[in-house]
Amino acid sequence: MPAARRLHAWCIPAAFVPSLDPSVRRMSERRFALIPCAGSGSRAGAGLPKQYRELAGHPMIWYALAAFSACESISATALVLAPDDLPLEARFGSAAFAGLRFDTAFVGGQSRHESVLNGLRHLVQLGAEDQDWVLVHDAARPGLTPLMIETLIRAVEGDDGDGPDAAIGGILAVPVPDTLKRAEAEPKPSEPSQSSQPSQPSQSLQRSQPSRIGGTVPREGLWQAQTPQMFRVGVLRQALEDALASGAVVTDEASAIERLGLKPRLVNGSLRNFKVTYPEDFALAEVLLGGPSAAPSAGSSGDRSR
């Protein structure tokens, strides 16, 4: 693959927000979807990558592809697979994804960060331009619906104010409803007690390890990030390239944008749009997707936005 074209340093925000009337600008902009699907899903167990496991009659990845395919406002969807992965048709048969609109790019990297960046470069090869929008979505969020996608698009494209964060982009998210506790790993029997010292959260604390409460985290103002996360192709590519060059760890696209000093919009998402992460999550997703109107379509939302 040819090296990605370097962008000029972005001034904030004028350099990446076209200086046209908003109504005229929207007519010239396109929207692309990007689904990184190169991870192993090791926390979900069962060996097979979780995005390929069956849920309510379809592979998990089918639901995200179907949701974007049902949105006429999405020009194209790029599915990013690992270079050594199989095409979906070879893995599941040609009929499994019949009627869905997507392009496959075997450019997945060692991390989600690299996979998204390589996927953006692939979209540019397909004709995407810097001022176009891209919606990046987790393959492991099968509860996405067309209404959620359209809600995000309307909120982001309607953010046409004159402030420094206007037309930056935004993400689906839900307010944190529960009390949050910071976990503290229990010392091993051979370790001396650290009770006399201030508690420090363990960086390697695993979900299954026994632990104690190290403190309560105030939840006021906290939101749980979801996907899609929608930004302009050019500014997101620059943000990810800058983060990669500096060695910064970014766990989602919004955090890369935040490093530029920008403040993306929070858009109310849905509890339906949860991320399948652990083995027990599959049972919940199966119930959710197996119910009436579960399959994504242009006329069904399944949304519980708050």
Automatic annotation (TrEMBL):
One of its GO terms (biological process) is isopentenyl diphosphate biosynthetic process, methylerythritol 4-phosphate pathway. Transmembrane segments: none annotated. Its EC number is 2.7.7.60. Residues 191-211 have a biased composition (Low complexity). The keyword Repressor does not apply. One of its GO terms (molecular function) is 2-C-methyl-D-erythritol 4-phosphate cytidylyltransferase activity. Residues 182-221 are annotated as: Disordered. SUPFAM superfamilies: Nucleotide-diphospho-sugar transferases. Pathway: Isoprenoid biosynthesis; isopentenyl diphosphate biosynthesis via DXP pathway; isopentenyl diphosphate from 1-deoxy-D-xylulose 5-phosphate: step 2/6. InterPro entries: IspD, IspD/TarI, IspD/TarI_cytidylyltransf_bact, ISPD_synthase_CS, Nucleotide-diphossugar_trans. It catalyses: 2-C-methyl-D-erythritol 4-phosphate + CTP + H(+) = 4-CDP-2-C-methyl-D-erythritol + diphosphate. Keywords: Isoprene biosynthesis, Nucleotidyltransferase, Transferase. The record marks 43, 50 as: Transition state stabilizer. The record marks 219, 275 as: Positions MEP for the nucleophilic attack. Catalyzes the formation of 4-diphosphocytidyl-2-C-methyl-D-erythritol from CTP and 2-C-methyl-D-erythritol 4-phosphate (MEP). PANTHER family: 2-C-METHYL-D-ERYTHRITOL 4-PHOSPHATE CYTIDYLYLTRANSFERASE, CHLOROPLASTIC. Belongs to the IspD/TarI cytidylyltransferase family. IspD subfamily. This is 2-C-methyl-D-erythritol 4-phosphate cytidylyltransferase. It comes from Cupriavidus cauae. The gene is ispD.
